Amino acid sequence: MSGLVPDWLPLVMAVGGAPRTRLEQKLWAARLSQRDVLRRFPEEAERQGEGEMHVSERQLKRWLAGGAPTPRAVACRVLETWFGEPVERLLGPPDDLTTTPDLDGGDLVTEAGRRSVEHAIDAASALDPSVMEHLHAAARTAAHAYLTTPPLELLTELVVLRDTVYAQLDRTHKPHQQAELYLLAGQVCGLLSSVSFDLGHPLVAEELARAAHTYGSVIDHPSLCAWARALQTTVTFWSGQPRRAVAIAEAALTVAPAGTARVRLHSTRARALALIGARDEVGTELAAAVDQLDHAGSDEFLDGTGGELAFDRSRQALCASSAFVALADGPRAETAATEALALFTELPDARRWNSGAASAAIDLATARALRGNLAGTESALDNVLALPPKERTEALALRLHGLGRILGAPRYRSAAEATRLAERIEGFTAASLSRTTARPAIAPLI
């Protein structure tokens, strides 16, 4: 070895690797392991007067790897005081080891060997199989609870479950367990996407749907990816971007597996197409969804989990009624909504999607309004308008806003029934979840 490069440096690189950041370099020099930092961080924060503060193993690994976003202000202060350098420098590249070695050759080789042993032990870390069993059971329970539980009640449980899954990812390095945890993370993020939209937060809902898709991509799981894209499609067309929703669903259909995944994508794409007036294409997509229903039932992830992940004939009929409502096709909308209501009614209470049944009732009411049947409109809405505020989801409110616009058309301005209904709808939507739920309720998801 020539010049300023020490003779022992290649051995250090081979045995222990080079530090990736200045922070990691400082830890090596101080002979501090990651476990030491996790243990001492709260002590340092307390000593500096910052109060109780912890850092997760996952976050510390991001800091050491480089490229992590700037930590919260309090964490920055603790790091800067502890290690005596600006946080931008600590999270940046290490000093040049060829000119500023902190240890002599023997110490560095010893340190490299110690780190290699620690890394090997860390790599062997695994979760007890019972942990995975409990997490799968909890995720499945949440998927079924979505059908019957008011969204605000489910939100906290899902956030806790998501964070638990994330914590377990930091505790195992077994590839098959990591893949299972990524699948669970995708499932829970997808459920959180649905709940977020129900609570009136479409931007958060789309972010969570994209996160679910990313987890599916990481583990090459086509069913998770397809479900996530269908969720994103739904949020997008409700947000007033039907053309973008069409494109999302169309791209997802090119790789989605047959059966339930494609039923949902064809159905949601039909609804988006209806919003841009593509009448012929709507019929084609709805027919394709019905065809795929014949292949449904064997998807291990979607059908095996069930609940919100499943997509049966009742939900397909609901999508059809919503598409025909968007096309202002009263007769076909009424037929499809009647079918959807009948199918929902046939399901056992535990499997009936309450919000879906209420949505079908609103579609039936809207179809009757399109046909001039105001008495039928009011009777179809009686049960919906009696729902307590905690069950008044964003989708129900948006559907009722659409009906309200029809009731406000010139043809109904002199009709007492239309005025009465419009007032009842205004009262309902004023107490919907998106109006009554405080923003902090969704904060843990952002």
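Above is the first protein from milestone M3; the second protein from the same milestone is given next.
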Amino acid sequence: MSDPFLHIPFSPLELLRTFDKGIKLHIKRDDLVHPVLEGNKFRKLKYNYYHFLKGSLKVIITSGGAFSNHLVAVSQLGRLTGIRTFGLINNSYADLENPSLSICRRNGMSILLKNEINPLLSPEKFGIEAAEIFYIPEGGSNIFGLRGCEDIVPEITSQLPEVTHIVVPSGTGSTFTGMSHCLPSHIQLIAVNVLKMDLKNHLRKEFGLVLSDNNDIWEGFHFGKYGAYSDELIKFIIDFYSEFQLLLDPIYNSKGIYAVYDQIKKGYFQPNSQIVYLQTGGNQGTLGFNQRFGKNLPCKNIDNFLL
């Protein structure tokens, strides 16, 4: 079984722009960490995969939404390693031909809707044994996923020792939580909340994380709710790509970078701050967004997410 996590160099860290008062914005290109497994999904799956190898496990089962970056990543891991994978969709209807689920299925993942037989409950119907199953929760948000996200901080500090702030978009909060576990006290870690929820309370209940003085959460950048957008955000994504030739998905990273620009304008950062924005990947989500909303945002071709 090949190991997709071996011999992977640090993802690039690039200076994006210098603003007034000597404020510099860098971008950590975790969208480039692996040719297929993008961003924080690569980080979250790494130690899940190593745990899988320790036992007599043969099957990975996980769950997510119909356009889930996590499902796509698990399907890619299965294709890379030969592991059988199942994706449980969180509702009883989904278009199996949408770009995300099409990628999953073409990678060999079995997709099951909420109202279908669950292999966790009836594994024998799928020709597997319960002891062979490894379940990874939605978003990869378990102890192994958190551990993988811990690796990001020492990479950044070795690449840019003078970093003062790290900004990350937050969905489940697991990337932020993992990074906070090994955060030096002089660095501010900021989560951009892209879900319309009480993230602080969620982090405490889900991960036992109590925010410290060098943690912060930026609210108000979800544009109404998870997955929502505005004409201003669409223009921002297009203009950003035109200026830097960098892709921003409309669900996570466009809102994260937009928030950084907004907070720089509002004076959040001290002069000479060295900000690192973590590009968490998820570019496949743009394919589905364009299809659903009739947009033409810059994105990769669907074949880029297949082997």
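Note on the second protein: The longest strand covers residues 13-18.
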